[in-house]
Amino acid sequence: MKITINGKSISVEGKRTILEVARENGIKIPSLCDHGKLEHFAGCRMCIVDITGRKGYPPSCSTYVEDGMEVKTNTPELRRMRKQILELLLSEHPHSCLICEEKENCDEYKSTIRKVSEVTGCVLCPNNGRCELQKVVEDLKIDRVSFPSLYRGFDILKNDPFMDRNYNLCILCGRCVRMCHEIRGASVISFTYRGSKAVIGTSMDKTLLESGCQFCGACLDVCPTGALMERAAKYENEPENSERTVCSLCSMGCTLEVSLSEGRIYSTKPYEEGLVNRGQACVRGRFLVRDIVHAENRISKPMIRKNGTLEEVDWQEALDFVSGNLKKYKGDSCGLVVPSQASCEDHYLFSRFGQEALKTSNIGNPADLNLQACFEDYIREKNLKFDFNFNIKDISNADTIFILADDLAVTHPMVWLEVLAAHRKGARLVLIGSSPSAGERFAVLSLKPKAGTELPLLQGILDVVFEKFQKQETAEGAQKSMEGPGLDQCEKITTLKKEDCLKAAGFFNGKGRKIFLVDGSIPFLPSNREILSVLWNLSLLDGTQMIVLDGFTNSLGSLLIYRNSGTKIRGYAAVLEDALEGKLKALYLSGPFPLIPGEDLEFLVVQDCYHSAWLEKADAVLPAVTLFERKGVLVNTEGRAQKTNPSAAISGEGKPDWWIVSQIAGKMGAKGFEYKSPSPIMEELSRRRAVFKDLTYKNLAKKAAFFLKSKTGEQQRYDPSGMDFSTEEQDRDFPLRLVFQAVPDSCRGFPLDRISKSLSLIRDSRDIRLSKKDAGKLKLKDGEKVRVESPAGSFQGSLRISEKQPAGLVRAYLSLMEDFDSSLLKTFMTYSREKASLRTLPIRIKRGK
Amino acid sequence: MSEKYLSRNFGVTDSHKIEVYLKGNGYSAVRNALKIKPENIIEEIKKAGLRGRGGAGFPAGVKWGFVPKKTDKPKYLCVNADEGEPGTVKDRYIMTHNPHQLFEGIIIASYAVGINTAFIYIRGEYENIAQRLEEALDEARAEGFLGKNIQGSGFNLDVYVHRGAGAYICGEETALLESLEGKRGNPRLKPPFPASVGLFNCPTVINNVETLANVPVIINVGADAFQKTGQKGDGGTRIFGVSGMVKKPGVYELPVGTTLRDIIFKHAGGMKGSRRLKAVIPGGMSAPVLTADEIDVPMDFESLMEKKSMLGSAGIIVIDQETSMVDVLKVVTKFYAHESCGQCTPCRIGNAWIYRIVKRVAAREAGKRDLDTICRLANNMLGKTLCPLGDAAAMPILAIMKKFRTEIESHLEQ
């Protein structure tokens, strides 16, 4: 179709707004409330235009072009009206600086005085120079406001972590509200009050924290004014430059723009064109990067123990000391723990270092405990054909999504946003699991079986589906050999109604695009492996795509490196077991590990970023750097490989992990560790491991998106397995069940809430979550220090009472940190040693330490 | 004596009870309508020239016709009983005295459009009426006029009463939908129109109480008779609510097209005591004011439009010579400043500034230039807001400023 704008004929295709078409054709229309990603709001009325034959002045942001439309965007009348509307906005927005005659002089000679609490003009505003309102004022050449300035006098809200809100600067464009509601699905903020008293706020004016805000910062990034400000960056100087890198704080791999000021990180923002995140981030990427890179407890210099105390030394001395001592402990008496959150280059060299220099099979990677590791074992053993890769964008095209996960918004935020996008397009969400989840209010069905009875439930569903498909004779070759509990028993075990199981089974009808989203945080009573097996069978029957989400940064990449190394690597649980049994004489710790009691260790090396209790025992300490300070390749949960870039100056004398281990390996006499940069390591890895074929720096730079070729088995067949559905007897002494979850926010296993106090307000890795009902029974109060006791051991933390938490179930984070009871951890892991999966544990809770 | 289509029962003892209503041949329209083809009912309503009684006056039959016939989504009827327009009390009378006639309208409209669920969105302040509606709905259900298989016709319908929470803006149809969905009552962008994407994104008809109450009348008396009662293309009667300085303020059901003069002087008994007429707001507060010499206008949509005013909700506010137009202005501007939802800049901040300036005018702290500012602000609202509230605020303000400028200026000079 053809339209004319200001006399210029333009041909347009598809459903487009006048504003979009105008902008594409270089025609400027001022606008404040419109945002490309959000629904139209049409509130600011800056973008009004004149359409021949149409009454009034419609806003161009929400008026779609029609064939033959004649639009005028810049008549004197429109300019006059826009100025008047802008004057109205300015009458409520501290504007003295905008129309000040001394403006230019001021800009030149005075820098912004940001250390004020009340902003009464642009020079006092932290958003000075970046403000969209300023730009519109400039474009419309406003030099006077015919109304007196009206300061609305709202209190500046500073009671929340990470951000301040000053609604005296707000122009009520509603972008933050729409972002929070439409894209993030959180709906924490809304318009409150009405008319001239309208203001953005939370329900009952509670704090954001109390309102369930996840602090993704998306509201902040769309705010056109200085109303929403990141507290840490508020009082800083303007950033000098910015770098683009991949966030290494979880398995999503979001692209971030890191702005720098004097080599320090000023702020991190999600990159608009990020392949995974497309302009979105979460609390980790948006607010924590700066804190974790410039943390006070970073290890900054190499140290070795001399006469009982750690002393700072130079790198050469430290490397000589470590390599000299390690030579004495070659073989399985030497343990190596790696951080799962490291680059592929690091992991490749760690694996070579362990095998070729330390000559040990005791290499432990925390990712060994992940669900993906469990599933990888399963499909490898059964030779099943499965592709770990998926494209995050495909999720939004699903018709039905089954979620077996704890809280995707926290653990896999970008996956959750895609789920929400699918929901917006009409997809149905089915939640399965006893844990409370953020997705509940979006779900058409939320199955909450009794704690830990997910497997009988899923088996019950599978039975129904299997029978249905067998009747339809679509499941060719499938034989009725899956012995499930039957619906009656399923009802008894899970305490769910039979109809609910049938309803859930009804979704498996062979129609539409369906996805299983499974992550490792669901409390599975029998092992995860059996759950995965049921899901595998279900997905095969119905053609549902199964997506197994992993836990940490690069855990998929690291798994594939160690598991395809050709020699046996015993894994994390075995290293822990050996350590507890006193079989280890030397330990090379580069990842999280619970403190081992006793004095069996003869030599301990800690190679890490942060101080921990292990340093008191360490014979040598080697400072590593975070992935924000160096180059490295990470594989995210989709199987997508991406490269990080050094975005901050290296803190202290820290070195990348690959450099440290290659130096030590070289000094220990191992061959082929002469690397000067990570790029050749990657080339070597791409040659040595088929999964990493072609994954080189060169190819990464060339290709827009690079996915691993995860090699799997051949068979696509049903795998019925006999299962034991006997429920465990309730233990009178330990009446509650404990479920461990991985800490969602960590850097090399170090819980970020120990670095950021703000984060600990949102979620603390020492939180022990209990239902209101159980707390009432035990007469325990929120925030109280409690001890969790199990037959295997105990640990402590602070109690968080949750209304959503189901009764009888207690949840805590499994941090693998030094202050965690290692014997408890061991018992926990040996529950299913071979499968290395997490289960529930009978416990009781007591007040006090 | 003119036809009393809606107010016949007003004042009859227990007129709201179904046994009284049935004695007066109640629900005969439903019984008959359920035997007619739905599309023929829509045609009949179109022919009768029934225009919306809520304010905008959109032909009801045409509105029903916009709803897609074939859709896999449920369709809804929303009854707009959020009677918030100052000066308007007609729906309150209908719902208090004649709820079953409204239900008849709801049933017939739903049957005609193919709707099985209807909501009555009633303003929060009408608490006792909401209670009465609930009781009346129970009666209708018990008599088989609501619920499954109504009167053996195979047609199902249930009606729910939903109370608002006291916002004028929720009388705007799309804000009403938002509020009914449980959200903040902000208006929606149009298009899409509710007929295709309405309540819970489903096709929706939104009709005023009085509009629907007229539907059984048309079935009973026929489109022609109904049409003839009123004007061409604007049939039937209106319930005029007369308030202000008249001898007999109250509600009067009169044919569409009765002159304003007749309503005030013949039916409402003329001016109270020795008061003299100064101005009339003819159709609820949003309607631009008429001066005393303009009251020979017939009260129908077209005639009032010619006078640059509007029939609106037919709430007539009579203003006498002793009432200061500055006070009228203050009441009007305060109302809109208070009731703006806050979405569009010109309405949110504009109305607030207008009210602030009018307060200064009332206190004689303003100059003549301020009067121009009021007009400038009001003009800047016209046609530049999402919903009609901006226009509804600007038009009466501009009319008062234009027609009574001298009085306001002399107030400033005193």
Task: Tell me about this structure.
The complex is a heterodimer of chains A (849) and B (414). With 849 residues, chain A is of the alpha/beta class. Helix content of chain A is 29%, strand content 18%. Chain A has a seven-stranded mixed β-sheet, sandwiched between helices. In chain A, strand 9 and strand 10 (255-261) form a beta hairpin. In chain A, helix 10 (344-357) packs parallel to helix 19 (555-563), helix 10 packs across helix 22 and helix 15 packs across helix 17. The longest helix of chain A is centred in the middle third of the chain and has 19 residues, at 454-472. The radius of gyration of chain A is 29 Å and the shape is globular. Chain A starts with a strand and ends with a strand. Chain B contains 17 helices and nine strands. Chain B has a five-stranded mixed β-sheet with strand order 6-5-9-7-8, covered by helices on one side. In chain B, strands 3-2-1-4 form a four-stranded parallel β-sheet, with helices on both faces. In chain B, strand 7 and strand 8 form a beta hairpin. The relative contact order of chain B is 0.12. Chains A and B meet through helix 2 of A and helix 13, helix 14 and helix 15 of B.
SSE layout and pairing:
The complex is a heterodimer of chains A (849) and B (414).
Chain A: E1 2-5, E2 8-11, H1 18-24, E3 50-51, E4 70-72, H2 76-91, H3 103-109, H4 132-139, E5 163-165, H5 175-183, E6 189-192, E7 199-202, H6 218-222, E8 228-230, H7 231-234, E9 241-246, E10 255-261, E11 264-270, H8 283-293, E12 303-306, E13 309-312, H9 315-326, E14 334-337, H10 344-357, E15 363-364, H11 371-382, H12 392-395, E16 400-404, H13 408-411, H14 413-424, E17 428-432, E18 445-447, H15 454-472, H16 486-494, H17 498-506, E19 514-518, H18 528-542, E20 545-548, H19 555-563, H20 572-580, E21 586-589, E22 603-608, E23 620-623, E24 632-635, E25 640-644, H21 657-667, H22 678-688, H23 697-702, E26 706-707, E27 736-742, E28 746-747, E29 750-751, H24 757-762, E30 767-771, H25 772-778, E31 785-790, E32 793-802, E33 809-814, H26 822-830, E34 840-847
Parallel strand pairs in A: 1-4, 14-15, 14-21, 16-17, 16-19, 17-18, 19-20, 21-22, 22-23, 27-33, 30-32
Antiparallel strand pairs in A: 1-2, 3-4, 5-8, 6-7, 9-10, 10-11, 12-13, 12-23, 24-25, 25-26, 27-34, 28-29, 30-33, 31-32, 31-34
Chain B: H1 18-23, H2 28-33, H3 38-48, H4 60-65, E1 76-81, H5 90-97, H6 99-113, E2 117-122, H7 127-142, E3 158-163, H8 173-180, E4 204-208, H9 209-221, H10 223-229, E5 237-244, E6 250-255, H11 260-267, E7 277-281, E8 290-291, H12 301-306, E9 315-320, H13 325-339, H14 345-362, H15 368-379, H16 389-403, H17 405-413
Parallel strand pairs in B: 1-2, 1-4, 2-3, 5-9
Antiparallel strand pairs in B: 5-6, 7-8, 7-9
Helix pairs in contact in B: 3-6, 3-10, 5-6, 6-9, 9-10, 13-14, 13-16, 14-15, 15-16
